[in-house]
Description:
This protein is about 40% helix and about 25% strand. It has 13 helices and 14 strands.
Amino acid sequence: MKIPFNSMHPKTGIAAVGSALVDMCLLEDDRFLAESGAKKGGMVLVDSEYIGEMLRRSKNKAAIVPGGSACNTIVGIGKLGGKSRFIGKRGNDELGSFFENGLRNNNVEPILMKSESPTGHVLSIITPDAQRSMFTYLGASAETAPEEISEELFENTALVHIEGYLLFNPKLMIAALKAAKNAGAMISLDLASYTVVESSRELLEEICESYIDILIANEDEAFAFTGHKDESKALSALSSSADLAVVKIGKRGSLIGHGGSVVKVKPMGEGSTVIDTTGAGDLWAAGFLYGLVHGYTLEKCGELGSACGYEVCRTIGASIPEDGWQRIKMLL
C-alpha cells in the first residue's frame, strides 16, 4: 500500500523534538529490580543521586550511550542516510558534550540549547528476559522553554517526530506541535510508555484530534490509550485519532492502519536470541519514518522498521553496530 508522502511533501528532512538524555544501560537480575521498587517495563522519574546510588549498588558496569526516545529514532534515521535534526536542551557539562558529539557522529544536526543544570540521564535496568525498566533524571532536558521552539527550527522539514514523554510538559508539547504545523510538516508521535499515556490521557486525546498525522504505539501503550486488549481493535481506535496508526506487537511483528486498511508486518529474526529491548520501538520508528518520507510502500516501511528493531535487540543499548546497519541497508 502506497502513501503519497513525497507527492505531498517533496522534502525528505526529518526533525525530532525530545529529551536530550544519556542512557546508562545496566544488566541486572529481577531481584535487583524488585529491590528498587520499580514496575518492570515502566519508567519512573528520579533524581540524579538516586541513579548514582543504584549504580553503586550494582556489581556490573553500565554501558553509556546517547539516548532518549526521539534521539534514538533520529540517530537511526541519520544512520540510514536521512537528513536529520534533533532539537532539545543539554547541560553545559561532560555528559552534554558526549551527547552532542554522539549526534554529530551519527549524521544528525544538533540544535541544542544549553542549561547550567546537569544533562539528563536514564538508568535502564535490563533483566534476563530482555525487558528494560527505566529510571529517568530529566535535568536540563526538562528546561526547554516553549518560546525556544520556533517555526524556523523546522525549515525544509517533511516530518517532525515527537516523543510521548513531552506530554509531561504540556506547554512545550503544544508549542512544538504548533511550530511544526506552521512550518508545513507532518507530525508523528510515539506514545513512549504506557505510564505516560495513563497520566496524560486528556491532553493526548486533544492533540491527536488537532495535530497528529502518524501515531505509533506498542501493545501496552495502545491498550492504555484505547482500552482494547485486542490489537486489531486497538489499531482501529488509534486509526480514528490519526491518519496513519501503528501497533507494534513484539515478537509477532506489527500492524499498520491507514484508510481503513491494515498492513501486517512480519517480525524479523524469529527464534533469535534477544539480548536487550532498549530502543527497539525507537529504532522501529526510525526505519518506518525513513521509508515514509522517501516514498516507500507501507509494506516496505514496515519491513525496514522491523529490521531496525530486530538489529538493536541483538546488542546492549539503543546503538546498532555497523555490521547491523550494513544488513539493514541491504533492504534499501
